[in-house]
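Per reviewer request, we include the raw input and output of the structure prediction for the construct analysed in the revised manuscript.
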Amino acid sequence: MIMKKILMIATGGTIASGYTKAGLTPRIGAQELLGFVEEHRKFCTVDMVQPFSLDSTNIYAVHWLELAALIRENYEQYDGFVICHGTDTMAFTAASLSYLIQNSRKPIVITGSQKPINLPVTDARTNLLDSLRFASHPRAHGVNIVFGGNVIAGTRAKKERSKSYNAFSSINYPAVAVILDGRIVFYIDDKDRLEGETRFYQELNERVLLLKLVPGMDGTVLNRLFPYYDCVVIEAFGVGGFPEYGQDPFFHEIRRWTDAGKTVMLATQVTHEGSDMEIYQVGKVIKENFNLLEAYDMTLEAAVTKAMWILGQTKDPESVRRLFYTTINHDILLTPA
């Protein structure tokens, strides 16, 4: 049996946390984490690095870029990568890395846990061992989350439970694989269909805002946000539409943003099945009159981080549209006709 060489990247999170008077906080280092899963020695060798140790609440674009750069620097030396990460922003990190590292023939796995690894009863040891096992599999590739026995494409993951071990779901797309008693069963095995070279990017535009509509919201809020953001992702109701309260401030403000070359994107607050703005008048009129983007079946985490990635490369509206509707790591199935 050929032993795979894996780089484990520890970043903190619950998996590495310990109890303090102020609450759980990352305290366990990479070497100690790995010591809890000695069984990995049967199928891989592991080197470790710890670029930072943070509660994932404190992880954002600067850290995503750091992780992407770290993987790029070590890409040729390892067969796969496992990132230990907190669960709260894990889906954002997985989505962002899907855009920063594209077409990877090597697996880049993000994992974590709902309980610290040093507790008697915890999901951490299983998740970490499963992640190392998946990262060592010859058919594994691309950016995925491994958690609770499921392998989820990095652009399709969402944390849907705050405490349960099955915290993450794959949204509007099947799980890539499941891991049962140490055996990996692939539902999607598409490594042979990869084309072109692995591509790394090192630019993100953080001037992207996610705005959640609430009934009665005044559309002029977009006017106040205009100077600070290059893109607004509006989380609308149902299949998607904008409210018409009196003077139609949403119409006016969307025109202001799009006329200025800024990006306006509509997504839905509903987790499953996606948006479809053409069904109702409140959505169709907007879509027909304004050059905005629609997230369709994408997760909010993917829509936001894809916008950051795209605007880090270009602000040309047509290029933004083309890149947004280009499928990357299974992120979007529905696109404009």
